C-alpha cells in the first residue's frame, strides 16, 4: 500500500486555498473606513450644562488655591512652639495642603478637557516637511489649540487656573529656602556638612546612654553604636548626631587590609566608621560577623570592613569614612581628630 503521508499534491495547504497568495496583478488596497461618528456631550448641547461644567472646573482650581494657602498657614503660623501636638497638626495640614493644591490642578485640567474642550477626532494626511510653510502651519495649529481650549472666552477658568498654577510652586521654594534659617553662605553650609563634633580627645560613648567605652569592653565580633561625648549638651543635638554617629567594631588585626597612612587609625583591631550610608544617608546598622560586612537596610549597599569599608555591592558611591581613634591614659577610646573626609552622600562640593 502506498504511503501518502508526505504527499501534498492533493489536499495540501497550497492547493486548498487556505493560504492567500499574491496574484500577478497589483495588490488590492484597503478602503479608508473614515472616522467614527462623533457623539456630542451634554455640555455641547445644553448651555446650562456647559456653565455648570465651567463652574466645576473653576471650583477645582479654587480648591488648589485653598490647599496652597492652607500650606502657608500651617507652615508660618502653626507649629511655632515645641508642642508635639502642634507639630503633628502642622505636619497634617502641610500634607493635606500640598495634596489638595496638586489634586485641584490635576483633576481640574482633566475635567476641563473631558467636558469643555473639543473632543472630535481629526485625521491629517502625512506630507513632506517644508520650511516656511510648515512654520506657518505650526503657528496656526498652536493658535487653533488655544482657541479650542476656550480659555480666551472663559475668564473664570482662565483666572482660577492662573492663580492655582502661580501659587502651587511657592511652597516648594519656601521649603528649600528654609532648610537653613541662619542666613549662612553656601561655603558655610558646606562646612557644616564637612565637619562634625569629633575632635582630638573626644571620648567615644554609647548611644543613647552616653557611657564611655573602654578598649577592653570591645570584643571581636561585637558592635557598638557610638556618639561623641557631650552631644546632648549642644544646641542642635539631632543635627550633630546625624553627622557624627559611628559604628565601633573589633577585628582580628591579621584580617585587616590597611592603607598607607592609616596604620594608627585603629587600636588593636578596634575600628570606627561613619554610620551614615554614602548613598542617600540611611543609617548602616546591620553587621555580619562571619563575613565582616556592613549592610545598609534601605538599598542594600554592602561595605567590607576588612577593606576599610569599601563598597562591594549596591548603589553607594564610596567607602564609609573612617574615624581615627586611640585610647587615653585611662583606657577609654577617644578620637584622634574629626573625619578626614565629609560623611554621608556625595554633594556638589564634596572633596
Automatic annotation (TrEMBL):
InterPro entries: QcrA_N, Rieske_2Fe-2S, Rieske_2Fe-2S_sf, Rieske_Fe-S_prot. Pfam families: QcrA_N, Rieske. Keywords: 2Fe-2S, Cell membrane, Disulfide bond, Electron transport, Iron, Iron-sulfur, Membrane, Metal-binding, Oxidoreductase, Respiratory chain, Transmembrane, Transmembrane helix, Transport. It is a multi-pass membrane protein. Residues 1-48 are annotated as: Disordered. Residues 243-334 form the Rieske domain. GO terms for cellular component: plasma membrane. The keyword Lipid metabolism does not apply. The keyword Disulfide bond applies. The chain crosses the membrane at residues 57-78, 93-113, 156-176. Residues 1-10 have a biased composition (Basic and acidic residues). Iron-sulfur subunit of the cytochrome bc1 complex, an essential component of the respiratory electron transport chain required for ATP synthesis. The bc1 complex catalyzes the oxidation of menaquinol and the reduction of cytochrome c in the respiratory chain. The bc1 complex operates through a Q-cycle mechanism that couples electron transfer to generation of the proton gradient that drives ATP synthesis. Belongs to the Rieske iron-sulfur protein family. This is Cytochrome bc1 complex Rieske iron-sulfur subunit. It comes from Zafaria cholistanensis.
